[in-house]
């Protein structure tokens, strides 16, 4: 028997060790952001990125920024539930 691994497993291993993993996860979250948090919040959010389990949410709208700070636990729950795994452990809103 050979020790060959599938292409899918090889890609998964590569992504786990690669710096592009955060970029891919950020794109996935951005693509689903309106479904996760709603259209209104999605429209007022400028940028979303994830780094090492921390979700960074950028918005120029001060009242939304304050609301998102109060909803950190809900955001973590919704994002992780949406992806079926723990991607986000903390949220930073700025």
Explain this structure.
The structure is a single chain. This protein has 94 residues and is α+β, with helices and mostly antiparallel strands. It has a single domain (19-93), classed as 2-Layer Sandwich (GMP Synthetase, Chain A, domain 3). It has five helices and three strands. It has a three-stranded mixed sheet. The mean pLDDT is 88.
- Strand adjacency order, main sheet: 1-2-3
Give the C-alpha Rg. Answer: 16 Å
CATH architecture: 2-Layer Sandwich
CATH topology: GMP Synthetase, Chain A, domain 3
The overall strand count is 3
Q: Determine the mean pLDDT.
A: 88
User: How much of the polypeptide forms β-strand, as a percent range?
Assistant: 5-15%
Distance between the termini: 53 Å
What number of domains? Answer: 1
Summarize the helix and strand pattern as letters: HHHEEHHE
Q: How many H/I helical runs?
A: 5
How does the major sheet shape up?
3 strands, mixed
Helical fraction: 55-70%
Low-pLDDT stretches are none
């Amino acid at each position: 028997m050979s020790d060959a691994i599938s292409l899918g497993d090889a890609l998964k291993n590569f992504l786990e060790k690669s710096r592009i993993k955060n970029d891919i996860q950020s794109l996935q979250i951005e693509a689903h952001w309106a479904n996760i948090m709603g259209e209104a919040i999605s429209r007022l959010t400028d940028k979303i990125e994830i780094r090492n389990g921390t979700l960074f949410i950028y918005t120029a709208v001060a009242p939304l920024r304050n609301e998102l700070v109060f909803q950190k636990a809900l955001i973590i729950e919704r994002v992780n539930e949406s992806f079926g795994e723990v991607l986000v452990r903390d949220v930073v809103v700025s």
